[in-house]
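Onboarding guide, step 5: your first structure request.
Type a short instruction followed by the sequence, for example:

Predict the 3D structure of this protein.
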Amino acid sequence: MQIVLLFIGAYLLGSISFSYIITKGLKKEDIRKLGSGNAGATNTLRVIGVGPAIGVLLLDGLKGMIPVWAASGLHYNMTAAIASGAMAIIGHNWPIYYGFKGGKGVATTIGVFVVASFIPSLISGIFVILLIAATRYVSLGSIVFMILTPALMVILKTIPYDAALCASLIGVLSIWRHRTNISRLLKGNERKIGH
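The system replies with structure tokens like these:
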């Protein structure tokens, strides 16, 4: 019963859309009707600017961190902790408070991965920052992070294999949420950051 309550709490926490709240507060508009229509940090950057985008990135990341910390604090294994984080990601993507229309869950997934396995997340993060700086494609960096981090968890054996598998499934979910971005990348018309 405790784990069920933890999952429900993680989903409800994940459902809080900071990009929506901040944009509504500053522009009195729904971010899902502006820019790319995505309720996330990248669209916040395009619509409002750097400061609010950093705030959204950190707060959305925290949504992924808290359930993993909570599950670990309650002495659940790492697989259960990552699954708890996955519920926050699901909440972010399909938020109950906003008609189940949310973002792509990248920052929340980063939060889950960082707490679950810091070194693979750090290595992937550094590589992805360099990749985004070189290509200006945030979506490409996000996709690479979702592939590389779980792979490094397995290669470096930083967490049990079943936990890394759970992380891989989260990565697959994020890649699926980026399917339109992947299509645009392949066609060469994906929007670059700063343009």
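Each response can be followed by summary notes, for example: The chain has one domain: 2-187.
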